[in-house]
Design goal:
It is a single chain. By secondary structure, the chain is an all-alpha fold. It contains eight helices and no strands. It has a single domain, classed as Rhomboid-like fold (Up-down Bundle), CATH 1.20.1540.10. Helix 4 runs parallel beside helix 6. It starts with 9 loop residues before the first helix and ends with a helix.
Length: about 190
């Protein structure tokens, strides 16, 4: 019996490989490619790259540990979500999460640069909680994930100074919860 490798989750695998390319480019350019294309920060609204970076900052990462941590979650959760909800919905979820987290960072933290897929990861985590959602029911797992997740992010945002954008995590989680609820409500 022959075994073959399949490209089973095109959006997720493409995201992982494009992010890998961005990571390699960042390494080869000593951070210049992240600054130019894969990180959002308070730059002139007259610069077209400012708008591009609202989308592409989720592809850039600060280092290999950051990249690997995010991609492990994306590879774990993403294929299941892509199979259940379809590639177009996952592309839209990633894009909406990127824009919302990018805009929040741009307007609320003008002195802070943001890169990484953590907002997307948390969108996937909360969206996954809704995979067994039925109309008229609220699964206890959704409530527990939301409490633990939001509690952790609020605690870390208030008490830790660790260069982690807890607001992006919260925003990504809220986007994932909203989309998960909305997509499952139609089933």
């Amino acid at each position: 019996m022959k075994r073959r490798i399949t490209f089973n989750s095109p959006v997720i695998l493409s995201f992982v490989f494009i992010s890998l390319g961005a990571m390699v480019a960042n390494y080869l350019t000593a951070g210049m490619s992240n600054q130019a294309f894969f990180m959002t920060y308070h730059s002139s609204l007259a610069n077209p790259l400012t708008y591009l970076r609202f989308f592409t900052h989720v592809l850039g990462h600060a280092g290999w540990t950051h990249y690997i941590g995010n991609m492990m979650y994306i590879l774990l959760l993403g294929p299941m979500l892509e199979e259940k909800y379809g590639s177009v919905n996952i592309i839209e979820l990633i894009a909406v999460t990127a824009v919302i987290t990018g805009l929040l960072n741009y307007f609320l933290f003008p002195g802070v640069a943001l890169c990484g897929a953590s907002g997307v990861v948390f969108a996937f985590i909360l969206m996954t909680s809704f995979t067994n959602f039925n109309e008229g029911e609220i699964p206890l797992t959704v409530i527990l994930v939301a409490i633990v997740f939001l509690g952790q992010q609020l605690y870390e945002g208030v008490f830790l100074q660790d260069n982690v954008s807890n607001l992006s995590h919260i925003a990504g989680g809220l986007v994932g919860a909203f989309v998960g609820y909305h997509l499952n409500r139609r089933d």
